[in-house]
């Protein structure tokens, strides 16, 4: 049973619209500014977790203590 040309044209137009929508979404997702902002938010959220925050403070304190100790022992 052959399909009529109008039906085929409607299907092609729908496929084009879906493809255009997908391409627009990919363009938004791949935007460098958006990616940078998203990465920044992720890193800040991770750094605000108590385990990471206090671990970073402990490491910074240990490094500062070692630098002071090294200067004293010279």
Q: Which tags fit this structure?
A:
74 residues, mainly alpha, 2 domains, 3 helices, 88% helix, rod-shaped
The gross shape turns out to be rod-shaped
Major pleated sheet: none
Proportion of residues in extended strands = under 5%
Which structural class do you get from the secondary structure elements?
Answer: mainly alpha
DSSP summary, beta strand count: 0
List the total number of helices.
Answer: 3
Calculate Rg over CA atoms: 28 Å
Instruction: Domain count, please report it.
Output: 2
Question: End-to-end span in angstroms?
Answer: 94 Å
Low-confidence stretches: none
What's the overall average pLDDT, rounded?
Answer: 90
Q: Into which percent range does the helicity of residues fall?
A: over 70%
N-to-C SSE string, H for helix and E for strand: HHH
